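Hey all, sorry for the wall of text incoming. These are the two entities for the joint prediction.
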Amino acid sequence: MHYPQILENLISYYQKLPGVGEKSAERFALATIELKDEEVEDFSKTLKDAKKNLHRCSICGNITDEEICRICQDSTRDKNLICVLEEYKNIASFEKSQKFTGTYHVLNGLISPVDNRGPEDINLSSLINRINNLQNPELILALKPTIEGEATILYIQKILENKNVTISRLSYGIPMGAEIDYLDNITLEKALEDRKRISE
Amino acid sequence: MHYPQILENLISYYQKLPGVGEKSAERFALATIELKDEEVEDFSKTLKDAKKNLHRCSICGNITDEEICRICQDSTRDKNLICVLEEYKNIASFEKSQKFTGTYHVLNGLISPVDNRGPEDINLSSLINRINNLQNPELILALKPTIEGEATILYIQKILENKNVTISRLSYGIPMGAEIDYLDNITLEKALEDRKRISE
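and here's what came out:
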């Protein structure tokens, strides 16, 4: 305890942020008190307001400060095309690329028997509801290639078996710019399996 | 702009912290809204209060929430021994070692002709005042070994020439645990110059 109590308190709050250790938290706290009065005032207000006003979109589970998120509200987006994601954070990656014109569905987790997380613990029933109300729904499962991701993909595939819905998953393979030498075996195996024909 | 405005605002505030880029700020903001309501409430309050209540100690320039900092208030500390530092942040390093029982004086900068910063731009006159009120003052100049640090050391030496004050600087040399092979020339040169006799 070399600093005044209020400064120590601020440091310990910064340490609650992901990947922020004691040294960084100290730097952040000291930098904070160097900011202008009105900046700190507004930072403090923004923090409180963000927590108060943000919640999940009632359709897709994206984060929003309205009842329905901006993507679900957008009439230009294809409501029949739904990209299924683990977390709402993943949406940003797709939106940045500006290639995807459909909507999203955030599962808020993946099925994981090891962690005792079953299909009822993730945001799946609302996905089924959405699909039931669509004419020609198409699902893109953009889940990470892990045991949990695969388990979730298999489960979704199974429960939608008898429904009129097109399902695809993201392709697995070599990431752009990678050196073949440095690739792990499993990625290489998947890239072979999923190889794409380029001549007739 | 993939997030609600309030979330974007929070992200941009986190980006004002040192070394925090867009990605980290995003992670911090998303983690913030996962915190408990009362935690965010208190974080927000702490931020505002820290800015409002913290200022410089009127004696030494350390950061404090009182008129005079805890170190200057402490009657067990040797008031005749003053360790001169560039920034109040440096105090923490000395306090952590628990070896220093004197007091501090924070210059809040160093003399730097290149940056047009002269002796009157740093917290020097109050140091002279402190020394004038002491019987047998001793100064330890703990300034970094750069052109600015050396310039400041030389200046302090010069203005205190005719006063009854003992002045020393930190020793230069090899840092503990370093490999001789990897040392830069200047450090090695200084370590030779400042070599310490260990036998008669």
